[in-house]
Amino acid sequence: MEEALRKAEAEERRVIKEAEEAREPNPWLRRVGWAAHLAGLDRTELREWIEMPDEEEPELEILCKTFDWMIQDAQYVIVQEVVSQAALFEANRKEANVEPQKPFNSWMDITTVKSYTHVWKQLLCYMFRAEDEDIDKRPAYRLRGQQQIAIQEVRAVIREFQAWKQDQPNEDPNEDDESDEEIEFMERIQREVLRLCIELLNHLLQDNEYQNVIISGLAIIGIHDDDRWLDAEDYTPKYSAIIKLARLMVVQEGYERRQEAI
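-> structure tokens emitted (262 positions)
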């Protein structure tokens, strides 16, 4: 009886309640509105949606690997020697009517790159997993038509790559390098992943910012491992990751479109 009662109490604590926010003395948590957006959903299940994939989710493994490749390639492109200085200044603009004082700097040390890409991969995994759930069992974000198309394009090219991979002879376990054909496939996936990210960023915020799947996913990232909410000091680097890599990808998208037009 006592065991059943403890289990029921634990399950009750896992479910997010909007009332938590109303009683919350912390203005940071009242401001972000995470509890209201995620009300009625299980904290533990939500946290699982932003975990890194393993071999049981091969599509997401490929997605995450491709995202890492894309950001690595973008860092080599987003420099003054490749793109114009004017583009880098524009990428660093923070206010529409205020001229930026310095160009965007794409450089990051390896620790920062891993940390920042991890946040973006969490958001992508969340979106792909949540899209496979019933709408009433996930947070109430809304994807626009072009965003839905972009997701399907990513899924399609990943599945094409998986089918091609299965038809290849068994690989040498001592061979770490990818073949030219595999690299070409990965570049195609990179292009579709970049287009998807740009579509996600190109989402006009209107009555409810949580209709944007990026902001919805950021609410889940705000759940700490022990089921409490992250405070502002611990959470701010997550925003930095989104903003830094968003700027990087916007310039990369402009560069690739320019190359396609030449």
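Residues 232-261 form the longest helix (30 residues).
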